[in-house]
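Methods: holo model generation. Sequences were used as deposited, without trimming of termini or removal of tags, and paired with ligand SMILES retrieved from the corresponding compound records. Each pair was processed once, and we did not select among multiple samples. The sequence and magnesium ion SMILES for this entry were:
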Amino acid sequence: MPSKLDYLDLLEAESIHIMREVAGQFERPALLFSGGKDSITLVQLALKAFKPGKIPFPLVHIDTGHNFPEALEYRDRLAEETGAKLIVRKVEDTIKAKGLKEPGGKFASRNALQSYTLLDTIEEFGFDACIGGARRDEEKARAKERIFSVRDEFGQWDPKKQRPELWNLYNGKIAKGENVRVFPISNWVELDVWNYIKREGVELPSIYFTHEREVLVHGEFLVANSPYIRIDEGDIIEKRNVRYRTVGDMTCTAAVESTASNIDDIIAEINRTNISERGETRIDDQVSEAAMEDRKKNGYF
Amino acid sequence: MDLLRFITAGSVDDGKSTLIGRLLYDTDSIKVDQLATIQKQSKNKGEGEIDLALFTDGLRAEREQGITIDVAYKYFNTEKRKFIIADAPGHIQYTRNMVTGASNSDLIIILIDARLGVIEQTRRHSIIASLLQIPHVVVTINKMDMVGYSEEVYNNIVIEYSKIAQQLNIKDVTFIPISALQGDNIVNPSENTPWYKGETLLHLLENIDVAHDVNYTDPRFPVQYVIRPQVDELHDYRGYAGKVISGTYKKGDAVTVLPDGIDSVIEAVEVHGEEVEEAFAPQSAVIRLKDDIDINRGDVIVTKSSSPKVSQDIEATLCWMDTRPLIPGNKYLLQVQSKRVRCIVKEINYKLDVNTLEKIENIDQAGLNDVVHVTIKTAAPVVFDSYNKLRANGGAILIDETAHTTVGACMLI
Ligand SMILES: Nc1nc2c(ncn2[C@@H]2O[C@H](COP(=O)(O)OP(=O)(O)O)[C@@H](O)[C@H]2O)c(=O)[nH]1
Ligand SMILES: [Mg+2]
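and the model returned the structure below.
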């Protein structure tokens, strides 16, 4: 006999339990909001977890300055509609203040620099827990990530020092200066997120649906034409009907060719496609097998 | 579609990673780019064909050493179910990892190499499965291709393992002859084992009854957080947020708030901000009470129909997870659900040999991976159930007071 609850109900119940553990165990938690569908799902879960109260922690956006305008617009509207407090900190400012070197190259990504701004923001507000939307199915190095993942003062993650996580008991005890990254949707896969968004009727930024866009055709990737990428001679720039499967920076998130104009179309497309989310869209992960593991150790979300 | 969590156990080279890879591969859960990466790595390793095991071996240290050192979670689904696999290492020095993976599992797959039959590790993994009370055990006899798909070999292993199951009081055991490498009886019934009339592994995973693993009769609701909106229209609102870890809760239920033992009546049960008829395990919910009483995180709301234990003197079977030893007299924090209290481990009564179940007396300390029986004294009363009676409310962790690490997993008695 199957269980009384549907798998989405079970995942949701677990995630809400985790959200409430964060609110119960920490003094100054925050929800890291990227504008992507995973963090939008987190906000939806947080809303449900604390109803009829408001979300008892701020949404924090680390703005690389390379965001899609549609994502920023969505972010501001979401904060207004939910009454959640929104904190925005800009990578641009960190670069200036710290005299950091802007990354170069064709798709100069500020992804790595985000860690600096994030750590500064954590320090500025004294956050002791940061909720993030990472999922274990995204990448191999994530498959062993805990739901409560302790980071030292430098934001570093040490795979050897991970705490065993048993039953539904989460140990968020930390020393001053340390913080915990919490991943409530660890056990969700991409399709679970889409199915949940559909079930809940969650609104998404428009770029998740098909639209005509000028893109740079770079091998198998379609990269939005923007002031943040370098156009070289001989580059192919075309207008294509695309959508985003994941939303990050304009410089390192690739679009997929698509005519999907609603969630059902998207789910059908994902069911048909045989390429993973990261493989299809994250330009920066292609570099090395251990790329993610290295970035995680250095304080990446 | 519902959800099943399972763990795989076997000793090194029994084919655990290959089995998981096979399940993922045969259910079309591996994407082409991920497959390409595996193909590339398979070549790097100098092995001819693609090595399905690579799909689960995540961290670099493991890739280098070629072993699984931590619990890795993998996901796949079919029309019927979503599956969460805990891939935990099998060596004795990773007992704690296996205990961790087993704690959340509804089912365990124990692999046996058909050529070797039941070995010490098989016994140990079964002991851990029974300590952690995993409801369902599936014994897959792997590498059947290497024993000519012999029915006799299979039958002998079944007989031998059945003795262990009986000794450990493991009730639900199923045996399946498989080849993880060739795919026999994993997703499709094998032509090589015409004598086997049972179901395939996937069929079993898809259909095994999990509804009855949930306890609907002993209501336990640990309060995680108190919701007080503090806006005018909800001025007096006070909702206790938590998860129904067992049982059901309805409006009008007479309840007691533990450990203080204050009585009240449920005014409303809410799920996601909406009032519902009842909330049941494992839903996350909010309970409101008729009386204005002081309830905090860590308190447990129970009904009159079933009482948990409330005590400061606790006995537990404990798996030690820290490199520094557990010495009687040491102080820790004990976390049971949302309650954390200071405690002292007063005595180690005996150590359990996880290979034989033998009790070893006169133990003065417990080391990493040891399983011991302890007596604990807590600084304040704790609300809990015996793990063997109510798994959902009988697990606890010990936290080091200064390093803050999780150092012990307790099955409360
Ligand atoms: N012939 C045969 N070899 C197998 C089978 N399953 C696994 N193997 C091989 O046994 C070795 C160890 O497998 P692996 O999955 O890494 O074992 P693990 O240590 O339990 O994860 C590998 O060389 C596999 O190819 C099987 O059913 N038949
Ligand atoms: Mg392995």
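The mean pLDDT of chain B is 91.
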